[in-house]
Write a structure and sequence with these properties.
The protein folds into three domains: 182 residues, Nucleotidyltransferase, domain 5 (2-Layer Sandwich); 86 residues, DNA polymerase, domain 1 (Orthogonal Bundle); 70 residues, DNA polymerase, domain 1, CATH 1.10.150.80. It is built from 18 helices and six strands. It has a six-stranded mixed beta sheet with strand order 1-4-3-2-5-6, with helices on both faces. β3 and β4 form a beta hairpin. α4 packs parallel to α7 and α14 crosses α16. The model has no long low-confidence stretch (mean pLDDT 93).
């Protein structure tokens, strides 16, 4: 049941002194709800612009843009005696570590819990509506959290992302324990607390643009120069790449290679884009026409034996997930499945080394994994002459 609360105004934490008082309060808690907001849709160098905390009775909004030193929060995030409840923690972990070096011990992710239980609608708003009849207005998801002062409607929006999180956490824990899936979810909570980085696609920017493979090598070289030019402009303007000029427009410029300003409009660039970007885009095209041809990075080919093992594991995983009515990666995360296929364990001891961070999965699925990897050979029928 949802805890009875009166929504008083959240506490704005915008000074070093206010932060010290908040840390003192959070140290008294056994669990807190946490969320962050960043400005990735509005800046080239994104950063955490707001950190929300909720206890059972108070909501706090920490303003990192006004506080010079947030290091005192490290003892909260790192403290294993204080559980931190998040929803979809992955990017929060990454952002807090990237900007402040924080590490998080003891977390509960309500989205991971919902996935482990087999929920189809995993958004926080969907879960709160289903469990408590609470509707969140999500129209501010793309808001600029770097603006100051924050409008009142953004303040209300931000505090609601953590206000009911502890109640949702309790409800989902009960369901996990009732279904015998608490240990399974807990393994993923621990994994989610580890900073894995968001390096994304290791290829160069131009190779990540859909359609680049249809260009000639010269056109790909021009596309590469256009991407570099856009990067410089975005950095100078402190704007995201897509708000400078789209991948689609860069692809068209590389393919058609216009030489004059008038030709840019024919490719769909607006008058403002032509005025601001026309000259650097044309200069990039000229550089690309004479530069050394780009090299296309060859992806390492996975050996057929590994691909076959992966396919057998995927088949087993899908069948097992169907019985629990969950997504396949709840049964076995992709990174673990890949490691198993590559190392090809033949014994439970070998498998235990690979799955040392997944003891529950090892105990419940270890024999099934080994059978999937090494199915028994078919019995040959002996026929009489």
């Amino acid at each position: 049941m949802l805890a009875e609360t009166t929504l008083t105004r959240p506490v704005w934490v915008g000074t070093q002194q206010a932060l010290a008082l908040l840390v003192q309060e959070l140290q008294k808690q056994s669990r807190i709800a946490v969320d962050t907001e960043a400005n990735s849709l509005h800046a080239y160098h994104e950063r955490v612009c707001l950190i929300q905390f909720s206890t059972t009775d108070t909501d706090y909004l920490v303003d990192p843009l006004s506080i010079a030193n947030l290091s005192s929060l490290e003892e909260i995030f790192a403290n294993p005696k204080i559980e931190k409840a998040f929803h979809a923690v992955d990017y929060d972990v990454y952002g807090l570590n990237r900007d402040y070096g924080f590490t998080i011990n003891n977390l509960f992710d309500t989205m991971i819990a919902a996935r482990t239980l087999g929920y189809k609608s995993l958004g926080l708003g969907n879960l709160l509506k289903e469990k408590f009849g609470i509707e969140l207005n999500k129209r501010f998801q793309k808001a600029d959290w770097g603006q100051r002062p924050l409008p009142e409607d953004l303040i209300d929006y931000a505090r609601l992302d953590t206000r009911y999180l502890l109640d949702l956490r309790d409800t989902l824990e009960r369901e996990l324990r009732e279904k015998g899936r608490w240990e399974l979810a807990h393994e993923d909570f621990v994994r989610a607390s580890q900073v894995n980085g968001h390096n994304g696609d290791p290829r160069e920017r131009w190779q990540r643009i859909s359609g680049h493979q249809d260009l000639t090598r010269r056109q790909q070289t021009i596309l590469h120069e256009l991407c570099l030019a856009r990067e410089r402009i975005a950095q100078k303007l402190d704007r995201p790449l897509f708000k400078v000029i789209s991948d689609r427009h860069l692809l068209a410029l590389a393919e058609k290679s216009p030489q004059k300003m008038l030709e840019l409009a024919e490719l769909g660039l607006s008058e403002r884009q032509i005025h601001r970007l026309g000259r650097p885009m044309l200069e990039a095209i000229q550089r690309g026409q004479s530069a050394s041809l780009v090299r296309v990075a060859e992806m390492d080919r996975t050996p057929e034996a590994i691909l076959n093992r992966l396919q057998r594991l995927k088949t087993w995983r899908k069948e097992t997930a169907g019985k629990l009515e969950v997504e396949s990666d709840v049964i076995l995360p992709r990174v673990t499945m890949q490691a198993i296929a590559e190392n090809n364990p033949h014994s439970e001891q070998d498998l235990a080394t690979i799955m040392r961070e997944s003891p529950w999965r090892l105990a419940h699925y270890g024999s099934g994994i080994l059978k999937a990897l090494h199915p028994p050979a078919p019995i040959k029928k002996i026929t009489q002459e």
